[in-house]
Amino acid sequence: MTSEGTKLDGLKWLVVVAIVAAGVVGNSVFAGESLLYRVLALLALALVAGFVAFQTAKGRAFFQLFKEAKNEIRKVVWPTRQETLQTTAIVVVAVLIVGLLLWGLDTLLGWIVSGAIG
């Protein structure tokens, strides 16, 4: 990366901020227009802002990170339906047991405190 590219990156981010600000202001100025037109205009501005942002060093790094994350997700071994149901059942049973234990402890302590207070 050259220092000139870094200098231009600041200008590009300024353009991105200006485009986003134009979208926000334009959406409120044209509040009387059809929602469809405003949404389409905002989508167009978002695409332009995204294109400009991806031309920066941080934008390219983000895109690279996104591609690598997508590749890592493909490597994940997802559980089968049966494994998911069994794990869910274990969690539900554990939560019920802990809930009953806490309820019993709360009831016992409440009984002791009410007996001590009178």
Molecular structure report:
This protein has helices at residues 3-29, 35-53, 57-75, 81-117. It is an all-alpha fold. It folds into two domains: 1-76, no CATH class; 79-118. The radius of gyration is 28 Å and the shape is elongated. The mean pLDDT is 92.
Largest sheet: none
Whole-number total of structural domains: 2
Task: Give the count of helical stretches.
Answer: 4
Radius of gyration: 28 Å
The secondary structure category is mainly alpha
* Rounded average pLDDT: 92
Distance between the first and last residues' Cα: 78 Å
Q: How much of the residues is beta strand, in percent?
A: under 5%
According to DSSP, the number of beta strands is: 0
Following the backbone from N to C, one meets helices and strands in this order, namely: HHHH
Shape: elongated
Q: What's the helical proportion of residues?
A: over 70%
Oligomer: single chain
- Uncertain runs are none
GO biological process, one term: protein targeting
Family: Belongs to the SecE/SEC61-gamma family.
Function: Essential subunit of the Sec protein translocation channel SecYEG. Clamps together the 2 halves of SecY. May contact the channel plug during translocation.
Organism: Marinobacterium lacunae
